[in-house]
């Protein structure tokens, strides 16, 4: 679509009662992000009340008409999805505005490929609108849905705002309050008027006189009906509580809020170091793998229902709708002569429709069984369920399913198979507890108890923790120079390495509250199996494993390398040279920023061409930063910072294991080196030549 054009949804698909609108953008540096918002407007072009404004502090409509889903990471950016049930949108809503905003001085001119797509209820993409050069605006209206003659249409808008989300919302009649004190914010981030769900009661805004953005003219108002019989029914008597003056309702706040975990009190004389605190989910009674699977399933599913934001975070990635969630364990379902008992069932109700998924969990090193998952897929297909979700310590590889199941394409109803790692469950809980919050102290405590359970050694929910049986033979073969290309054991090690890196990204991202993703420099369209075979051949030739991580606030890609010949791990990052200033000033500033970094940090100057720049340890360079400058005056392009440490030899996650050493190396490098570096400067928008 082009800017200003419109189209009727019914002309594109027969399944437009429910639609998904996706807003996306790309950021090659991994540091660009935005937040979406939705406004429901009446015939006057204004919101009917402040509750018609949906954003990160108010993501779900009570009637299910609007639901802001979670962010979906893409290769070089984010995509935000919004679910609309157009059948339950109130009749007095004429327009639905879809927008996005940025914060902290960032603007949309720093992002590329701004786009909005719309898909129907079965997931088929119907339209796409790409915004060209948006300029230095901090908020943009991507598009809008509006009614015409009983039909819904979509208009491509692409209008920018300099005043951010608060200014955009104010223009449409929302009464914004960004003052935490005025909103009565408590220590834990909630307000005095919030209920247990973390929602604030709505207030009716005063008429706003601001000019509204251009939009479709309102339809003619309906003709007035006959006057109502005012005396036919007597007015109900108001209770004493209703006659009391009510406390004014809080206004929407665009400042993000979270519920911080309660601080631990100091120990008193009435405590003993040997005492164990009481836990909601005890672990001492777990004696067998069966006990661990049953307990882990029940704990996970129950917390998902009691902490809706956590449950929604896990199920949204599987295409589940928003709505009332119910969970069950040990459900018996008929299957031939022998009934099957999946570990759990998730059922979500929304607008009278049900979404159901069977859940199969594994703990410790127990693998998923293909015949068991196949039976659940068949049961789900016969009963009209939407998905089968497997949960285990294994990490799924992109383009490579954990279990091979047979899918009958002739069936009209297709069942999706999804996998969730216990490490990903812990990652989502950690994000909500430490960084985003759930708006309620009791729910925060529930997530803390869940996280403590998952991280306890007796739960069996530790995530990926075994490099496999091929690890030791491959390592010995590299040392003996007997490992040949094409050896299937090398491919097994490469796949385990990729699983480990994905788990390292989850753990680091949970601690930082930032997006951390593996970065793969391969040509678009390259088959994942072919890519892994190439990496296995390189492992046989060079004896090295290599990976790159994209951390949202890091100045460059964080590189992790394992040299199996020398038994050493190298973590590094390349810092680009500033665009202005003098080389000596760059070197002094870099050394000054690294004042608290480890003394054995290696610093290398990157220069233009194939030449090798000066290098040395930080301990030697601190008194003489000028030693980083090339003697021949070659242009400096940047600096590479590296830390070396010995890697574990065992294949497991023990203290001396390889997995533990990689996780510790990445954590140490980021917390002692990367955090002291300058964040990347906002990327300038590319200048486009006039057509």
Question: What does this protein look like?
Answer:
- It contains 13 helices and 23 strands.
- It has 691 residues and is an alpha+beta fold.
- The longest helix has 25 residues, at 488-512.
In short:
The chain has 691 residues and is of the alpha+beta class.
DSSP helical segment count: 13
Percent strand: 15-25%
User: What structural category characterises the helix and strand content?
Assistant: alpha+beta
Helix fraction? 10-25%
Outline the biggest β-sheet. 7 strands, antiparallel
Overall pLDDT metric: 81
Supply Rg.
Answer: 28 Å
Largest beta sheet: what is the strand line-up? 17-18-19-20-23-21-22
What's the β-strand tally? Answer: 23
N-C termini distance: 19 Å
Low-confidence stretches: 179-249, 683-691
Shape: globular
Features:
about 700 residues, alpha+beta, 6-stranded antiparallel sheet, globular
Give the topology, please.
Blueprint: E1 6-8, E2 18-26, E3 35-41, E4 53-54, E5 66-73, E6 77-85, E7 95-101, E8 112-119, E9 125-131, E10 139-148, E11 151-161, H1 164-171, H2 240-243, H3 289-306, H4 308-315, E12 324-329, E13 344-350, E14 353-361, H5 370-383, E15 387-392, E16 416-421, H6 422-436, H7 441-455, H8 471-480, H9 488-512, E17 516-519, H10 528-542, E18 544-551, E19 558-563, E20 568-576, H11 583-593, E21 602-607, E22 615-617, H12 618-621, E23 636-646, H13 658-672
Parallel strand pairs: 14-15, 15-16
Antiparallel strand pairs: 1-11, 2-6, 2-8, 3-4, 3-7, 5-6, 7-10, 8-9, 10-11, 12-13, 13-14, 17-18, 18-19, 19-20, 20-23, 21-22, 21-23
Helix pairs in contact: 3-4, 3-7, 6-7, 6-9, 9-10
């Amino acid at each position: 679509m082009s800017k200003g054009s419109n189209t009727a949804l019914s002309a594109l698909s027969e399944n437009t009662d429910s639609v998904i609108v996706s807003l996306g953008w790309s950021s090659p540096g991994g540091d660009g992000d935005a937040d979406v918002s939705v406004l429901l407007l009446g015939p006057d072009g204004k919101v009917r009340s402040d509750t018609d404004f949906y954003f990160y502090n108010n993501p779900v409509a009570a009637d299910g008409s609007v639901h802001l889903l979670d962010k979906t990471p893409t290769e070089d950016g984010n995509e935000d999805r919004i679910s609309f049930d157009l059948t339950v949108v109130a009749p007095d809503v004429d327009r639905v505005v879809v927008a996005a905003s940025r914060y902290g001085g960032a603007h949309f001119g720093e992002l590329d490929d701004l786009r909005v797509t719309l898909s129907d209820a079965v997931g088929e993409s119907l339209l796409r609108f790409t915004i060209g050069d948006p300029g230095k605006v901090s908020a943009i209206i991507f598009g809008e849905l509006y009614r015409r003659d009983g039909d819904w249409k979509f208009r491509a808008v692409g209008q920018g705002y300099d005043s951010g989300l608060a200014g955009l919302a104010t223009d449409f009649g929302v009464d914004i309050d960004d003052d935490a004190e005025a909103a009565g914010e408590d220590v834990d981030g909630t307000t005095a008027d919030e209920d247990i769900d973390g929602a604030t009661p709505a207030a009716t805004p005063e008429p706003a006189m601001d000019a509204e953005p251009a939009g479709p003219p309102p339809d003619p108002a309906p003709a007035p009906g006959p006057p109502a019989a005012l005396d036919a029914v007597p007015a109900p008597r108001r209770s004493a509580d209703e006659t009391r003056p009510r406390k004014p309702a809080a206004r929407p706040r665009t400042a993000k809020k979270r519920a911080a975990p309660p601080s631990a009190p100091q120990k008193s004389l009435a405590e003993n170091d040997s005492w164990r605190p009481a836990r909601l989910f005890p672990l001492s009674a777990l004696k067998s793998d069966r006990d661990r699977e049953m307990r882990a399933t029940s704990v996970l599913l129950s917390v998902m229902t009691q902490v809706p934001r956590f449950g929604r975070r896990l199920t949204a990635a599987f295409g589940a709708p928003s709505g009332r969630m119910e969970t069950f364990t040990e459900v018996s379902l008929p299957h031939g002569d022998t009934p099957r008992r999946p570990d759990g069932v998730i059922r979500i109700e929304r607008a009278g429709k049900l979404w159901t998924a069977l859940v199969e969990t594994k703990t410790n090193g127990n693998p998923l069984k293909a015949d068991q998952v196949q039976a659940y897929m068949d049961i789900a297909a016969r009963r009209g369920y939407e998905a089968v979700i497997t949960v285990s310590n294994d990490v799924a590889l992109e383009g490579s399913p954990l279990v091979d199941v047979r899918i009958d394409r002739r069936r009209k109803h297709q069942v999706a198979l999804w996998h969730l790692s216990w490490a990903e469950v812990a990652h989502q809980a950690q994000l909500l507890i430490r960084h985003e919050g759930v708006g309620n102290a009791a729910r925060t405590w529930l997530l803390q108890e869940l996280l403590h359970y998952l991280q306890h050694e007796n739960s069996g929910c530790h995530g990926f923790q075994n490099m496999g049986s091929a690890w030791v033979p491959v390592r010995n073969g590299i040392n003996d120079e007997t490992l040949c290309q094409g050896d299937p054991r090398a491919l097994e090690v490469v796949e385990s390495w990729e699983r480990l890196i994905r788990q390292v990204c989850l753990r680091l991202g949970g601690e930082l509250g930032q997006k951390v993703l593996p970065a793969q420099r391969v040509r678009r369209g390259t088959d994942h199996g072919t890519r892994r075979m190439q990496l296995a051949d390189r492992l046989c030739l060079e004896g090295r494993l290599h990976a790159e991580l994209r951390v949202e606030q890091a100045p460059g890609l964080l590189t992790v390398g394992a040299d199996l010949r020398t038994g050493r791990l190298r973590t590094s990052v390349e810092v680009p040279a500033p665009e202005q200033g003098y080389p000596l000033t760059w070197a002094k500033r870099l050394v000054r920023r690294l004042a608290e970094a480890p003394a054995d940090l290696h610093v290398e100057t990157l220069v233009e061409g194939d030449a090798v720049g000066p290098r040395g340890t930080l301990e030697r360079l601190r008194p003489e930063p000028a030693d980083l400058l090339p003697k021949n005056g070659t242009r400096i392009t940047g600096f590479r910072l590296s830390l070396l440490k010995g890697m574990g030899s065992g294949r497991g996650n023990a203290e001396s294991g390889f997995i533990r050493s990689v996780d510790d190396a990445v954590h140490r490098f980021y917390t002692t080196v990367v955090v002291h570096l300058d964040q990347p400067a906002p990327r300038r928008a590319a200048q486009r030549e006039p057509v």
